[in-house]
Amino acid sequence: MQQPAASDRSTAVPSLYPSQASLAADSYYTYRVIEDPEWSLATVPHLTELCLQHIVHNFEKNPILDHLLPEHQRKVLDRLSTGLPLAVTANLISDEDYWKRCCTERWQACDISNYGDSWKQMFFERHLENILKCFIPNITDPNQVLELIPLCKDYVRKLEVDHFLPPVQMDQKEERDDLSNTGSDFGFGEVSIHHYDLGVLITALPHLEELHLTYGVKDCGMNFEWNLFNFTHQDCCNLAVAVKMCHNLKVFKLTRSKVDDDKTRLLVRNLLDHPCLVELNLSHNLIRDKGAQAVGKLINHSRLQTLDLCNNQIHHLGAQALARALAENSTLTSLNLRLNCVEDKGGEAIGRALLTNTTLKSIHLGSNNLSEPTAMLFSQVLAQNTSLMSINFSCNHLGLDGGKQLLEGLADNKALTEFNLRLAEVGQETEYLIHQIVWANREAARLGSLQHPPAKPI
Questions:
Q1: Pairs from 434-438 (Cβ < 8 Å, separation ≥ 24)
Q2: How many CA atoms lie within 13 A of 448 on its CB side?
Q3: pLDDT in tens, 163-192
Q4: Which of 36, 45, 154, 173 is buried most, with the most CB atoms less than 10 Å from its CB?
């Protein structure tokens, strides 16, 4: 075997330990780890996610929704801002969750049961109502309402406006100040002011079924003037023409608006033979006998089922006109004359009408200054009428004998399930016995409905 040469034995073997020289050289270098604040372990988003983010951020300029897959539509709708212009979202987005967010972010109380269980319907109805409540004639741009019509017309079925602002007439401010200090508190010196004309709006809402209006100003505070609560003749003319053209209207309520006989006749003239109207509410107004006579004519020239004339100034002549219409009517089921003054002449006329009427189910004659003669006639009604289910005679002066007459008439009655005699002076014992009969009728009706439930509409 060949031996290694001497020169090979002299070759230097590397040391396992660093030399002092190398340590000294390395001491001049510093090792650092630089952190990237944007660096993340998360992977790069999918291209689909990036596209959806782009759609959401640019939705106002380029609203893309219908062409997306359902799962992608859901992601876009959940991320869209509720502050997008209605011109973009109104006729494009039908998703209820989106409109629910729009409602809950804007209003604290949101009960969709009053809006057909639809969040979108609720949003557009309340949004339109708020615009009308803040509209100031001659100052607010009418285009605020007109531009909204094509966006909301398919979703508005009910309008409830309990606040209308009158126009601000700066040139008459001093005159109004003088009137407020002199005669305006007594109704004198009335300045003619007209409110926003609903005609263009109402006739452009094809699905409008309910209209609830009150012409007045809420929370006026120290700025109170009688003129703020003035439903002018021109207002009435505009409203009457608009309601006539609203062919799908089913419920019309005009309350607390100082509607007098002349305005009532004007409204009735435009409501005659209305194809759909089933409920009319003119309560808390200034209607007297002539106005009631006009309403009596309307009863038999319409499809009215519910009529509310509560808290007006109707006396026996007006009540007699209503009774004549009631005797021939076959559609009205509810009549409210509470807080009028029909007295016994009017009460007896209504009682005689109910001897032949077979459709009315509820009548309210509370606080009408009725006494024993009316009670005697209604005892006959209770004995003969089999359709009347609810009677309210509260706050009258029927007397003890009147109460006994009613008890006798009720002896064989099986239809009446509500009979309010509070503060009618019929006597505690009589009122208790009547209550027992009515309670038995109500219990029998309940058991009957359980045994024979009403058929569901097809």
A1: 434/403, 434/406, 434/407, 434/410, 437/407, 437/410, 437/411, 437/413, 438/410
A2: 8
A3: 999 887 655 444 445 544 444 443 434 444
A4: 154
Predicted confidence at residue 172, as pLDDT, reads 47
- The DSSP call for residue 223 is G
Rounded CA-CA distance 375/402 in Å is 5
**pLDDT reported for residue 236:** 96
**Tokens 């009319």 belong to residue:** 280
What is the three-class DSSP state of 1? Answer: coil
Cα of 249 vs its chain's centroid, Å: 14
Task: Name the pTM for this structure.
Answer: 0.85
**Cβ proximity of 238 and 266 under 8 Å:** no
Residue type, 314: I
Where does the pLDDT of residue 26 fall: very low under 50, low under 70, confident under 90, or very high at 90 and above?
low
Q: How far is CA 81 from CA 85, 92, 104, in A?
A: 10, 14, 13
Distance between CA 154 and CA 215 in Å, rounded? 26
Q: What whole-number distance in Å separates Cα of residue 84 and Cα of residue 163?
A: 28
Residue owning tokens 């359902």: 70
Can you tell me the distance from the alpha carbon of 323 to that of 365, in angstroms, rounded to the nearest whole number?
Answer: 13
Query: What's the angle, vertex CA 56, arms to CA 54 and CA 62, rounded to 5?
Result: 80
Q: Which of 213, 183, 200, 277 is nearest to 241 (CA)?
A: 200
DSSP class per residue in 360-415 = --EEE--SS---HHHHHHHHHHHHH-SS--EEE--SS--HHHHHHHHHHHTTT--S
Please report where in the chains the tokens 């406006």 appear, as a residue.
161
**Residue 291: which of 255, 249, 319 has the closest Cα?**
319
- In one letter, which amino acid is 342? V
Beta strands in 209-248 (DSSP E): 210-213
Specify the pLDDT at position 190. 42
What are the tens digits of pLDDT across the range 329-371? 999 999 999 999 999 999 999 999 999 999 999 999 999 999 9
How would you class 443 by CB atoms within 10 Å of its CB: exposed for 0-12, middle for 13-18, buried for 19 or more?
exposed
What does the pLDDT read at residue 266? Answer: 97
Burial tier of 200 (Cβ tally within 10 Å: 0-12, 13-18, 19+): middle
What CA–CA distance (Å, rounded) separates 337 from 363? 8
How large is the C-alpha radius of gyration of the chain?
38
**pLDDT surpassing 80 at residue 267:** yes
**Distance between CA atoms of 32 and 30, rounded to whole angstroms?**
6
What pLDDT, on the 0 to 100 scale, is given for residue 125?
96
Going by C-alpha positions, the residue among 229, 386, 270, 364 that lies closest to residue 309 is 364
Distance CA 67, CA 58 (A): 16
pLDDT band at 229 (very low <50, low <70, confident <90, very high): confident
In 208-268, the DSSP E strands lie at: 210-213, 251-254
